[in-house]
Design goal:
Radius of gyration: 32 Å
Shape: flat
Largest sheet: 3 strands, antiparallel
Keywords: Transferase, Ubl conjugation pathway
Structural class: mainly alpha
Strand order of the largest sheet: 2-1-3
Helix content: 55-70%
Number of helices: 37
Pfam family, one: U-box
Catalytic activity: S-ubiquitinyl-[E2 ubiquitin-conjugating enzyme]-L-cysteine + [acceptor protein]-L-lysine = [E2 ubiquitin-conjugating enzyme]-L-cysteine + N(6)-ubiquitinyl-[acceptor protein]-L-lysine
CATH topology of the domain at 458-636: Leucine-rich Repeat Variant
Distance between the termini: 57 Å
EC number: 2.3.2.27
Function: Functions as an E3 ubiquitin ligase.
Strand content: under 5%
Length: about 625
C-alpha cells in the first residue's frame, strides 16, 4: 500500500510532525502548541523559530480552522491507518484560576484547591503562565511565608505542613518568568529567602530540595543587593542540603546557589564557616559526574579566594590531593579551576610544609598538561594568560578566539567577557619552564620566555616618528611588522591612534594624479598605510569611526584608490570597505556616489583576486537596497 503523504501545511515547523493543537503566534506562523510552548516558555526564546523575528507578545492563538481541517483529513484517510486525534482540551482561563485561588483561602478547601492547582500546572506551559498572571505566585508565597509558631506547626500540625509542602512544589513547578522571580526576591524585604531557609532547616527532604531548586532560579536573576545581605544561617542550610545528597538535582542546585552567591561581600567567608570546603572535598572524592565536579571546583576556587577558605582546604587531610587529582580528569573548566585553587594556595598560603606536600603530590607535573583551546588537543602552554573569567589559556589560542573569531565569551565557561584584557600568568609560566628543565632528560625542551606584546607608549612614539617624511616609510614597515605578530598588538595599535594616522595618509589626496603618476615614493606610503589598516582587523567601533570621519571623506579616498591604485591596493580598498559596510548605517549607504559604484564594479570586472571579488559582491549587496543604489549599479554595469 502506497504511503499517504501529510500535506505540508499540516506539519509543525519545529517537530516536522502533524499538528494536533495548532496555535498561531504574533508573527503569523502556526506551530503545534506543545512545541512552541517549549520554545518560548521552557527554552525562554523570544523570537519566531521560522522567521527569527522578535515576538511582540507571547499570546498563542488557537488556529481552530486548521485544526478542524487536519481532523477532517485524518477521518478521510482513516483507511490508510491515519488515526483522528481528539479535540485538545483548551488551556485554563484566568477567571478559573482566580476563582480557585478564592476558594483556597478557606482552610477547609485549601488542600483540595492546591491539588487542583498542581494538576492544572502540570498540563502545559500555557497554564503555568496563566496561573502566574492570575496571582497564584503571590498566593503560594504567602502560604510559604506563614512562619508563625513555626516549631509547633512543623511538629504538631501535619496538615498545615502538608499545605506548605504542596505550595512550594507548585511554585517550583510553575517555572516562573524572570519578572515573577524578581517579584519573589523583592517581596517583604527578603522575607521569602528567610522562609525558604526555614524550609531547608525544618522541612522534609522533598521540600528542602524544592526550596534550594527554587532559590537557584531566583539567584539567576537576582541583584547584588540581595546577595550581599544573605545571612550565615542561609549558607549553613544550603551546605547541609549539599551534605545530605538529597538528590542529584538538589545537589546541582545547591552548588549553583553557592556559586552565584560567593563572589559578593563576605559570602566566601560565610560559606567557609558553614563547612562548605569539607563537604566539597568529601563529595569530590566520590563524585565522577563531569558537570557536578566542575561546579564543585568552581565553588572551591571562589571560597579559596578568602583566607578562611584556604585554611579550611589545608586543614582537610585530602584537600590538596583531591584538587591535584582532578587536573586533566574532569574537563577544561575543571582543570583550570583546580590550577587556580593551587595558585591561590601557593601565592597566599605557602609554607614549607605546603610546598613539600605539593611537591610530593606531583603538582608541577600536573600543571604542565592543561587542555587548550586549539581543537581540544593537549598542548603545553608557552605563554599563559588569564582572561576576565579567571581561566588561563595560551596567548596565541585565546587571541585567535577573541580577536580573529570575534567571540565575546570564555571558551570554557561560556561566560561573557567583561573586558578583553589578557593578563600574563607569570607564576604558571615559570612553573612550566621549571618542569621542562627538570624533565630535560626525557626530551622535554625548555621554551624561551615569550616576548611581551607591544605597549601603547611604544606605538605612540612610532606614530610621532612616522610624521617625519624621511622616517615615514621605515615607521610604516615597523608598524606592519608589529601588527603581524599577534592580535593583541593590533588592538594596542588601534587604541594608540594608528587607525587615525593611517587614514590621514590615505586621505591625503592633494594633486592626486600627480602623486600617482610622478611621486612613486608617496604612492608607496599610501599603499603601505592601506595594507596595514586592513591588516589591523579593526573593531566595530573603529570601523564606525572610519565611516564617520570627515563626512564620508574616507569612502571617497578609497574610491580614488580603486580608481588609480595598484591591483593590490584596490583589493585592500574593497576588502576594507566590505568590513566597514557590515557595521554602517543606512545614512552612509544612501549617500554613495556614482563613481563609487563604477569603481567597485571595475574591481569585480578585473577579477583581481578571489577575496577581492567576494568583497566587491558583498559591498554591492549591502549598498544596493538603499536609495537609487541599484540604479547606480545598473549604470556601472
Amino acid at each position: 500500500m502506497e504511503e499517504i503523504q501529510v500535506p505540508p501545511y499540516f506539519i509543525c515547523p519545529i517537530s516536522l510532525e502533524m499538528m494536533k493543537d495548532p496555535v498561531t503566534i504574533s508573527t503569523g506562523i502556526t506551530y503545534d502548541r506543545e512545541n512552541i510552548e517549549k520554545w518560548i516558555f521552557s527554552a525562554k526564546n523570544n523570537s519566531c523559530p521560522a522567521t527569527k523575528q522578535s515576538l511582540t507578545c507571547i499570546e498563542l492563538t488557537p488556529n481552530v480552522t486548521l485544526r478542524r481541517l487536519i481532523q477532517s483529513w485524518c477521518t478521510i484517510n482513516a483507511s490508510h491507518g491515519i488515526e483522528r486525534f481528539p479535540t485538545p482540551k483548551p488551556p485554563v482561563s484566568k477567571p478559573q484560576i482566580i476563582k480557585l485561588l478564592k476558594e483556597a483561602k478557606s482552610p477547609k478547601m485549601l488542600m483540595n484547591s492546591l491539588k487542583r492547582l498542581r494538576s492544572i500546572a502540570s498540563e502545559n506551559d500555557a497554564n503555568k503562565r496563566c496561573m502566574e498572571s492570575a496571582g497564584a505566585m503571590e498566593f503560594l508565597a504567602s502560604i510559604i511565608n506563614n512562619n508563625n509558631n513555626l516549631n509547633e506547626v512543623f511538629e504538631e500540625e501535619e496538615g498545615f505542613m502538608s499545605t506548605k509542602d504542596e505550595a512550594l512544589s507548585i511554585l517550583y513547578q510553575l517555572k516562573l518568568s524572570e519578572n515573577g522571580l524578581r517579584s519573589l526576591i523583592m517581596s517583604g524585604n527578603g522575607e521569602f529567602i528567610e522562609s525558604l531557609t526555614l524550609v531547608m532547616q525544618h522541612g522534609s527532604y522533598e521540600s528542602r530540595a524544592y526550596a534550594v531548586m527554587l532559590m537557584k532560579d531566583m539567584f539567576e536573576v537576582s541583584t547584588p543587593t540581595l546577595l550581599l545581605s544573605l545571612k550565615q544561617e542561609f549558607f549553613t542550610q544550603v551546605v547541609q542540603v549539599l551534605r545530605d545528597e538529597i538528590s542529584q538535582k538538589a545537589m546541582k542546585a545547591s552548588l549553583q546557589v553557592l556559586v552565584n552567591a560567593c563572589p559578593f561581600g563576605r559570602n566566601r567567608v560565610k560559606a567557609a564557616e558553614a563547612g562548605a570546603i569539607r563537604v566539597l572535598v568529601d563529595l569530590l572524592l566520590d563524585s565522577s559526574e563531569k558537570r557536578v565536579c566542575e561546579f564543585m571546583l568552581v565553588l572551591l576556587d571562589q571560597i579559596c579566594q578568602s583566607a578562611e577558605g584556604r585554611a579550611e582546604l589545608l586543614n582537610h587531610p585530602g584537600g590538596l590531593a583531591i584538587v591535584s587529582k582532578k587536573i586533566l580528569r574532569v574537563s577544561k573548566v575543571g582543570s583550570e579551576r583546580a590550577i587556580k585553587i593551587l595558585h591561590s594556595i601557593s601565592k597566599f598560603s605557602s609554607t614549607p610544609s605546603v610546598v613539600q606536600e605539593m611537591l610530593s603530590l606531583g603538582v608541577v607535573a600536573k600543571l604542565c598538561l592543561v587542555l587548550q583551546v586549539d581543537c581540544g588537543s593537549k598542548e603545553m602552554m608557552k605563554d599563559p594568560v588569564t582572561i576576565s573569567t579567571g581561566i588561563t589559556y595560551d596567548r596565541e589560542n585565546i587571541e585567535k578566539w577573541i580577536f580573529s573569531a570575534k567571540n565575546n565569551t570564555c571558551p570554557a565557561t561560556k561566560q561573557s567577557l567583561t573586558c578583553i584584557e589578557l593578563t600574563p600568568n607569570v607564576t604558571l609560566r615559570r612553573f612550566i619552564q621549571s618542569w621542562c628543565t627538570i624533565n630535560a632528560s626525557h626530551g622535554i625542551e625548555r621554551f624561551p620566555t615569550p616576548k611581551p606584546p607591544v605597549s601603547k607608549p611604544q606605538i605612540i612614539k612610532l606614530l610621532k616618528e612616522a610624521k617625519s617624511p624621511k622616517m615615514q616609510m621605515k615607521s610604516l614597515k615597523r608598524l606592519r611588522s608589529i601588527a603581524s605578530e599577534n592580535d593583541a598588538n593590533k588592538r594596542c595599535m588601534e587604541s594608540a591612534g594608528a587607525m587615525e594616522f593611517l587614514a590621514s595618509i590615505i586621505n591625503n589626496n592633494n594633486n592626486l594624479n600627480e602623486v600617482f603618476e610622478e611621486e612613486e615614493g608617496f604612492m608607496s606610503t599610501k599603499d603601505e598605510a592601506l595594507s596595514i589598516l586592513y591588516q589591523l582587523k579593526l573593531s566595530e567601533n573603529g570601523l564606525r569611526s572610519l565611516i564617520m570621519s570627515g563626512n564620508g571623506e574616507f569612502i571617497e579616498s578609497l574610491t580614488l584608490v580603486m580608481q588609480h591604485g595598484s591591483y593590490e591596493s584596490r583589493a585592500y580598498a574593497v576588502m576594507l570597505m566590505k568590513d566597514m559596510f557590515e557595521v554602517s548605517t543606512p545614512t552612509l549607504l544612501l549617500s554613495l556616489k556614482q563613481e563609487f559604484f563604477t569603481q567597485v564594479v571595475q574591481v569585480l570586472r578585473d577579477e583581481i583576486s578571489q577575496k577581492a571579488m567576494k568583497a566587491s559582491l558583498q559591498v554591492l549587496v549591502y549598498a544596493c537596497p538603499f536609495g537609487r543604489s541599484s540604479e547606480s549599479g545598473e549604470a556601472s554595469n
